[in-house]
Design a protein that fits this description.
Strand order of the largest sheet: 6-7-8-3-9-10
Order of helices and strands: EEEHEEHEHHHEHEHEEHH
Strand content: 25-35%
Number of strands: 10
Structural class: alpha/beta
Largest sheet: 6 strands, mixed
Radius of gyration: 19 Å
Shape: globular
Oligomer: single chain
Distance between the termini: 52 Å
């Protein structure tokens, strides 16, 4: 991890009508860092990610990538978004296109890169995640885990500086979760800067350089994984973590 700040969020507020979803978020993400965002349902995790890549404009505050506002209008926001890859829990693959075409479409059409160069990148990435044999298949012919891996490769083929993951295993069967999480772990080991929203606690502890815990639209804790999971500072975080632990009931 480098000292360079890649993403900087200051005073971020997001309201939908009278509801305040994010309320004064200050957060810096360094190049090569993996930040995992945890918190109860409805606390603003997904909205925070969507503000990071400009899908949601802030009501107040700033989001900067490499010192440039992600909330800029027109051509600038398009250029900045190319530097930010985002993978959702729904795969959003084009059903009428092959996996290879799904992956290469944006780099060729949006970034205007040579087709041969893009296909070589796609080949390398598909082999990396064990999907090369599925390159000619259509999304309907793939399992959920395979489709999610393809969605990750599609984002990576744009050569982003930052990857955002929003509950990417939420729609998967338990057997498929590991194959997707293994890909993200490998990305972390390769030095990719990432912000991850997940409900997989063991994975969060393994992959994160830092844990951000949100509640009611505010950052309640910002700490190292071991510190957060073994000695959370706030009562809210303690209560949250208790929901993921179970004790064997004794027979009465």
């Amino acid at each position: 991890m480098e000292d360079k700040i890649l993403l900087e969020i200051s005073g971020l507020v997001k309201r939908f009508g009278s509801e305040t979803v994010l309320n004064g978020i200050d957060l810096s993400v360094h190049k090569g860092e993996v930040v995992v965002v945890l918190g109860p349902s409805g606390c603003g995790k997904s909205t925070l990610l969507r503000c990071m890549n400009g899908l949601e404009p802030p009501t107040d505050g700033t989001v900067l990538l490499d010192g440039k506002a992600v909330t800029a209008d027109g051509k600038k926001i398009t250029e900045l978004r190319q530097k930010i890859g985002m993978v959702f829990q729904s795969y959003d693959l084009f059903p009428h296109k092959s996996i290879m075409d799904n992956i290469t479409l944006a780099p060729i059409k949006v970034q205007k890169r040579p087709k041969r160069e893009v296909e070589q990148d796609a080949q390398r990435l598909l082999k990396r995640v064990g999907l090369w044999e599925k390159r000619k298949a259509y999304p309907r012919e793939l399992s959920g885990g395979q489709k999610q891996r393809a969605a990750i490769i599609r984002a990576l083929c744009m050569n982003p500086e930052l990857m955002l993951f929003d509950e990417v295993t939420a729609a998967l069967d338990p057997e498929m979760v590991k194959e997707v999480l293994d890909v993200i772990l490998e990305l972390a080991e390769s030095g990719m800067t990432m912000v991850i929203v997940t409900h997989e606690m063991q994975f969060a502890r393994a992959v994160a350089d830092r844990i951000i815990f949100l509640d009611n639209g505010k950052i309640v804790e910002n700490s190292k994984p071991d510190e957060f999971f073994t000695n959370p500072k706030s009562q809210r975080a303690k209560d949250f973590l208790k929901t993921f632990s179970f004790e064997k009931r004794k027979n009465s």
